[in-house]
Structure formats: structure tokens, C-alpha cells
Amino acid sequence: MLPAARRALRVNLPLLLNSGAVTIGNVCTAVLGFAFWWVAARSFPPETVGIASALISMMGLIGLLGEVGLGTLLIGEPPRQDRADRGLIPAALLTSLVVSGALGLAYALLTAAWPVLGRAGDGGSMQIPLFAVGCALTGVALVGDHALIGLLRSDIQLLRNVSFSLVKLLLLAGMALLWPGQGGMAILLVWTLGAALSLLLAGSIAVRRGVFVPGPPDMLLLPPRIARVADHHALNLAAQAPAILFPFLVAVLFSPTVNAAFFPAWAVVHAASMFPAALTVVLYRIGNQDADGGAGRLGFSLILATGFSLLAGLVLFLASRDILAFFNPAYPDIAGASLRLLGFGIVSLSVRAHYLALMRLRGTMRRASVRYAAWSSFEIAAACLGGSLAGLEGFTLGWLLSISAQALAMLPPLLATARFPLGMKGAAMGYTAGLRAAPEVSNRPGAAKEARP
């Protein structure tokens, strides 16, 4: 048993080291993020915090739209700086900047007259350009972070996320002390400034260490990759839209005040699911280059993620009211048992993330996009139906039931594919053979079209 455990750890060391770096960055980001929202909750009225958090959630969704799948492409297809494709990263960054900024500007103009979520606090006309800039920087950050993971330099990605969280926290605390009563505009402003400064810092470090060679963006490198980019983008949107959109929906369905209490609970659950998600991101990066070891690494990752998720769910079940009270003493009464119920969904989120990585490794992203779109629509509909029947707790219960049903549907192919370490039974069922028999499904240059079911 012990030698088998040692072998499993040795084989999966790159997976552990890089996912560990991503996780550490995510944990630091989560801790500092909790501090950020704690300062916001103690410095601004709940309605202001609820509106600002809803707008920031929409900023994240627009950034994901503007990323157009380029970040995921760069994870599986990292360019080498000594090759002719080194202009790919600048081209991807520029594309995400323009598309995300344009989408953010369009959204801000369309909602400028919306009496509730069309403006944050007393932002006035300044909110429109600020929101657009924030969306543009969010899209760039998504592509840049994924490019660093693809280059296996998660340490710089860690530094960017930590610096982003720290800078925005310090700026918000300073603004709350020196210029109180600024309203929700202050939250959007410090969020945007923090993103800009963290990107400058990470970019300068990457250039100085030779990770990234600056140069003009080569836009001609993008057209041959459009099919793979579109597949990645469709899958990203279908899989991630509910998680980003839910705080916005809560603010619309109930009130900004209710969202102020829901948002920390939702953030805690997704912070707890960061480690399983980091495992699957690095699993895709390594498995894409090493098909032979993919099934074994999938089994190792499933075991590790499931154990962690069960422990995190237990902690949230026991300490939910204390966690919410940390942000604001009124939040536990507003949110009710929502965080306690949400914690039960962490295992299902972990299964969902592993299934996503498996679909990318198999190259069946187009088919998976259709499935995820159906599942996500069901997820949103179930949550909204539950909310209409039983308020915020019904919203939470509807989400929990839908995400659990998804996990049950995803488990059979995962268990059939995974080859478990430590002598546990498991069958690869043609995982490696399937990848080798269909070279057109690879995400590397020269890949043709997606495998047919």
C-alpha cells in the first residue's frame, strides 16, 4: 500500500505542484476577497453592497464572454517563445481586451436607465466607462491567467491574483476611512484599479523572467484556431454561466439587500471548490500532452477532490451562521440556511469540473457544450422555480437538487474512464486508445475537427 501511494504521488507530482500553486493563489484570493467584502459590508449599506456585487458578477460574465475561449486554448496549446507563434499570447490578450470592453460598454449603455441595477450608488455617468474598463480588464485577466497555467508558470498567476486581492482591499479600506459615503461607485472603482495594477505587475515579472517575450500581436495566428477557440468558448459559457450569474439573479428576483447576504455564502462555496477546480485545470494541461497517464491522473484527482469536498461541506454545514456573521451580524438572518444547504453542492461541483476536463481531453467539446447548456438551463430554471416558491432557501434548494442530478449523470463515464491508484478497482475503457485513435480531437496545432459521437 505504501509503495503504491509513493508511486502515485511521484507520477502525479506535476499535477500536485501546479494545482497546488493555483489553489494557494485561489485560497489567498478568497481570504483577501472575504476581507474585501467584510470591509464593504461594514462600510456601506446592504443595498449598496448588493448592487455592487451584482454588477461585479455581471462584469465576470461579460469578461467570460469576451475571453471567447482563448484562455482555455492557451492552456492546452501553450506557445513556445522561440517559435513563430509567440505572437499568439499578445493577439489573444488584445482580442479579449477589445471584445470584453465592447460588450461591457454595450451592457452599460443598455442598462443606464435601469432604476435598480442600472447604476451602483451615486455613480452617475462615470459608471458607464468604469464598468466597460472593468469588463475589458476582466477578460484580459482570464486570458493572461490561463496562458500562465499553460506555460506551467502558475507561480506568476498566483502572484497576480494575490496582488489583485490585496490592492483592492487596501484601496477600499483607505476609501472607507478617508472618503466615507462614496456609495457603490467606490467598490467598482477599487475593483477596476486593483485589476489594472495586478496585470501590470504580473506582466512585468513574466517579461523579466523570460516567461513571456513582448512583441506585436500576430492576429494571423488566430484564424486557423477559430474552430477550437469556438468549441472552448461554447463549453466555458455553458459550464460557468450559472455560477457567475446567480448573484445577479438573486438581486433581481429578491432584492439587493438579500443579495448582499447571499453573495458571501455563494463566494464561500466556490472558494471551497477552488481546489478541485484547480486540479482539473492542470489535469487538462498535463493530460493533453500525456495521453498515456491521463486515466491514472483522473482517478487520483477524483479521490483527492472528493475527500476535500466532503470535508469542506462538513465545515460549512457546522459553521455557516458564524461565517455569514463574520461579514455582517444581520446576514445570517437574511440568508437563513442557504450557506448550510449550499455546502452540500461542493462534491457535485467537483464531479462537474472533472467531467469538463474529461470532455476537453477527449476532444468532444461541441457535444459537451450542448449537454452543459441543457444542464445549466435546468440549473437556472430549478433555482428560479425554487425561489418563486420558497424564497432564498428555495432558490438554494433548487440549485442543490439540479447540481446533484448533474453529478449523478456525469459519474458513470468518469468512473469508467478513471484508473484509480492504490490498488482500487477501475477500468480505463479505451481512454488512451480513444485519444490515439482520433488524433483530430487534439488541441495541439494541426488538430482538425471534433470527434463525432
Please provide a written account of the structure.
The chain has helices spanning 2-11, 13-43, 46-67, 70-76, 88-110, 127-150, 154-178, 184-208, 226-253, 256-272, 274-287, 294-327, 331-335, 338-342, 346-362, 365-417, 431-437. The protein has 453 residues and is mainly alpha-helical. The chain has one domain (2-441). It is globular and about 55 Å long. The two termini are 38 Å apart. Mean pLDDT is 78; it is low at 116-123 and 422-453. The chain crosses the membrane at residues 15-39, 51-76, 88-110, 130-151, 158-179, 185-207, 234-255, 261-286, 298-319, 339-358, 370-391, 397-416. Pfam families: Polysacc_synt (PF01943).
Q: Regarding quaternary structure, how should these chains be classified?
A: single chain
Biggest β-sheet, characterized?
none
Quick check: average pLDDT? 78
Cα gyration radius (Å):
21 Å
- Termini separation comes to 38 Å
Number of strands: 0
Helix-strand makeup class:
mainly alpha
- In which range does the helix fraction lie? over 70%
Keywords: Cell membrane, Membrane, Transmembrane, Transmembrane helix
InterPro entries: Poly_Biosynth_Transport (IPR050833), Polysacc_synth (IPR002797)
Pfam families: Polysacc_synt
Main location: membrane
Quickly list its features.
453 residues; mainly alpha; disordered C terminus
Q: Can you lay out the helices and strands and say which pair or pack?
A:
Layout: H1 2-11, H2 13-43, H3 46-67, H4 70-76, H5 88-110, H6 127-150, H7 154-178, H8 184-208, H9 226-253, H10 256-272, H11 274-287, H12 294-327, H13 331-335, H14 338-342, H15 346-362, H16 365-417, H17 431-437
